Amino acid sequence: MSVDIDATIEEPGVVALPAKDLYERIRAMPDGPIQIRRMVADNGAISALVKAVGAARKYTVAGLDATDYPTLPTPEPGALWQTFPAGALRHLLDSVQPAVSLDETRSHINSALLFGDGEHLTAVGTDGHRLTKARVAVKVTLADTLVPLRAVGEVRRLLDKQSGEVDMHVTKSVLFL
Predict the structure, then answer these.
(1) 136: which of 10, 88, 108, 148 fits an S-S bond (Cβ 3.0–4.6 Å)?
(2) Phi/psi of residue 156, each to 5°?
(3) CA–CA separation, 152 vs 89, rounded Å?
(4) pLDDT value at position 151?
(5) How far apart are CA 40 and CA 160, in angstroms?
C-alpha cells in the first residue's frame, strides 16, 4: 500500500520503517504535528526518531536502509483501469471473507478468487469445507485473480472509508486499487 501525505520536509531523506510499529507509536502521541528524523548509529544501524512537536514524548523506531527495501510495483504506463462502485467490492469481500481459509500454507484457499466476465464481478472463498460465492452486476472484465486473505482484510478496511467508485487494474501478480 502506498499513501501520499502533506509534509514539510526540512532535510530530504529516506528510511524503511516497520509500518505497524510506526503506526502504534504515532497513535500513542498527542494530536498535532510530528517530526520523523532518520538517524544512523556509529555501527551503521538505521533508525528513526519520531517526536510529537511541542511535547516531550518521543520514540526510536528501528529501520532499514531504503535501498535494502524492495521496490513497490507500479502499473505500466497506459494501463487499463476499470471503475465500479466501492459498495459492490465491499459487498463481495464481506460475503466471502468468512469462508476464506486461515491456513497460510495453502495459498490457493487462503485467498479470495475475483473474476469478472464483463457483466458481473464475482468473488469466491473457501476453506476446503465451506464455499461462498457472491456476484454483483458490474461491467468489469477481470481474469481469475487470487487476493490473499490479509489483502482482503486491508482492502475491506480501506473501503469502510471510501464511498463512490473504485478504480482497479490487474497485472499478472498485482491488483492495484
Answers:
(1) 88
(2) -60, -40
(3) 10
(4) 92
(5) 38
Read off the DSSP letter of residue 99.
Answer: G
Give the confidence band of 174 by pLDDT, cuts at 50, 70, 90. confident
Average of per-residue pLDDT across 6-33: 88
pLDDT of residue 131: 95
* Cα–Cα distance measured from residue 37 to residue 35, given in angstroms and rounded to the nearest whole number: 6
Residue 110's pLDDT is what? 93
3-state secondary structure of 140: coil
Beta-carbon count within 10 A of 79 CB: 11
Inter-residue contact 38 to 15 (CB < 8 Å): yes
Query: Which amino acid makes up residue 157?
Result: R
Scanning the structure block, which residue is given the C-alpha cell 530530504? Answer: 12
**pTM score of the predicted model:** 0.69
Sort strands 165-170 and 175-176 into parallel, antiparallel or unpaired: antiparallel
114-145 CB burial, b ≥16 within 10 A, e <16: bebeeeebbbbbbbeeeebebbbebebebeeb
